[in-house]
Write a structure and sequence with these properties.
About 5% of the residues lie in helices and about 50% in strands. Strand 7 (about 80-85) and strand 8 form a beta hairpin. The protein is globular and about 60 Å long. It has one helix at about 70-75; strands spanning about 10-15, 20, 30, 35-40, 45-55, 55-65, 80-85, 90-100, 110-115, 120.
Length: about 120
């Protein structure tokens, strides 16, 4: 078991089981799920109603090594995306897709975004 006091500082991403080289400290996961809307009352506070289901969003900077193809990345669809944080938390987004074709340049990184149904925590 991971130390319960450790914070997520690094992460690894796999797309259909293959690791993606990512820039340091660039992984952000919004696991999505049910949204809630506050509903104020005349004499009470703290009520809410369920809203729409938000998709998961995984953002990261891919290192633009020779093997990275931004056009192929932009066409990704029905991908199983897994993110493993160094604090022991693992999440999976099934049937994910690329939000857009990432731009590349001389920074050595491409800003990538995957969307999909709400993420599931696997550990």
């Amino acid at each position: 078991m991971a130390n319960p006091n450790i914070l997520a500082g690094r992460g690894r991403i796999k797309l259909n089981g293959a690791f993606v080289d990512t820039g340091s400290g660039t992984i952000t996961l919004d696991p999505g799920g049910e949204s809630r809307e506050s509903v104020p009352g005349d004499y009470t506070a703290g009520a809410f109603k369920s809203g729409e289901t938000k998709p998961a969003k995984l953002s990261f900077d891919a290192l633009t090594k020779y093997a990275f193809d931004p056009i192929s990345f932009g066409k990704l669809s029905d991908v199983t995306a897994t993110v493993e944080f160094d604090n022991g938390q693992h999440f999976v987004i099934r049937h994910a897709w690329a939000e857009a074709t990432p731009e590349i340049g001389t920074s050595g990184k491409a800003s990538c975004v995957l969307m999909g149904p709400p993420a599931e925590r696997t550990s």
